[in-house]
């Protein structure tokens, strides 16, 4: 029976569903192809980093146990051809659940194609953004822009209350925040006021 050391990775700690999806892919692979996962290493770090602590532990475990490194998809291991090539030079057997029959040469080839595709997409995106910028289109994160719009509208709605407090001599940010909290007025996100929150809100009105 083939022994496997599983490696699971997402880029950020918020991608919990990504971890579960990889775990399910590995379990499905074992169910279909047999074998035994003796250890699983989980990491939440960018794939651009070569020196990943949990991955290094997984590689050492493979050497010690004579096991095969198992990942759900090749990009969970790395998005860099050089990294994949260096790993293969260690003579560790690698299996990718999404392409279980791929040879070492094919995995290297897939990594090359993926890296070239990412480079091409990046260049095309930069070129498109440059054209839009030249046309006077305001660039940025649409979701961030939408949130800013909501904050600006909220600032306009609460402006009379802020002006009333300032007219009463309450001008310090801390004092304004304290007064708003005492009156039971929430921020636009439904939270409590703090000096920085007041400062940002006033900034929308300037």
- Helical fraction equals 55-70%
Beta-strand percentage range: 5-15%
Rounded mean pLDDT score: 82
The geometry reads as elongated
Rg estimate, integer Å:
26 Å
**N→C terminal distance:** 70 Å
Structural class estimated from helices and strands: alpha/beta
The DSSP helix count reads 8
Major sheet: size, sense and barrel closure? 4 strands, parallel
Order of helices and strands: EHEHEHHEHHHH
Major sheet strand order: 2-1-3-4
Low-confidence stretches: none
The total count of strands amounts to: 4
Kindly describe this structure.
The mean pLDDT is 82. A 4-stranded parallel beta sheet has the order 2-1-3-4, sandwiched between helices. Strand 1, helix 1 and strand 2 form a beta-alpha-beta unit. It is an alpha/beta fold. It is elongated, with a radius of gyration of 26 Å.
Question: Which helices and strands occur, and which strands form pairs?
Answer:
Blueprint (H helix, E strand, L loop, with lengths): L2 E8 L5 H18 L2 E9 L8 H13 L2 E4 L2 H4 L3 H8 L5 E3 L7 H31 L7 H26 L5 H10 L12 H11 L1
Parallel strand pairs: 1-2, 1-3, 3-4
Key words describing this protein structure:
single chain; 4-stranded parallel beta sheet
Task: Provide a compact summary of the structure.
With 206 residues, the chain is an alpha/beta fold. The chain has helices at 16-33, 53-65, 74-77, 81-88, 104-134, 142-167, 173-182, 195-205; strands at residues 3-10, 36-44, 68-71, 94-96.
């Amino acid at each position: 029976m083939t022994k496997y050391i599983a490696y699971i990775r997402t880029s950020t700690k918020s991608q919990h569903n990504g971890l579960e999806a990889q775990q399910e892919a590995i379990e499905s692979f074992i169910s279909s192809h047999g074998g035994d996962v003796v250890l699983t290493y989980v990491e939440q770090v960018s794939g651009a980093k070569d020196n990943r602590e949990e991955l290094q532990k997984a590689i050492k475990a493979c050497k010690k146990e004579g096991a095969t490194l198992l990942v759900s998809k090749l990009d969970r291991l790395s998005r860099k051809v050089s990294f994949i090539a260096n790993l293969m030079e260690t003579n560790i057997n690698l299996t990718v659940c999404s392409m279980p029959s791929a040879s070492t040469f094919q995995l290297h080839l897939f990594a090359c194609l993926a890296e070239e595709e990412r480079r091409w997409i990046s260049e095309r995106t930069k070129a498109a953004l440059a054209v839009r910028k030249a046309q006077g289109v305001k660039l940025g994160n649409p979701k961030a822009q939408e949130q800013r719009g909501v904050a600006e509208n909220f600032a306009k709605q609460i402006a009379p209350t802020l002006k009333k407090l300032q007219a009463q001599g309450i001008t310090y940010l801390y004092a304004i925040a304290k007064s708003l909290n005492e009156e039971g007025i929430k921020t636009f996100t439904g939270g409590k006021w703090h000096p920085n929150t007041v400062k940002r809100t006033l900034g929308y009105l300037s």
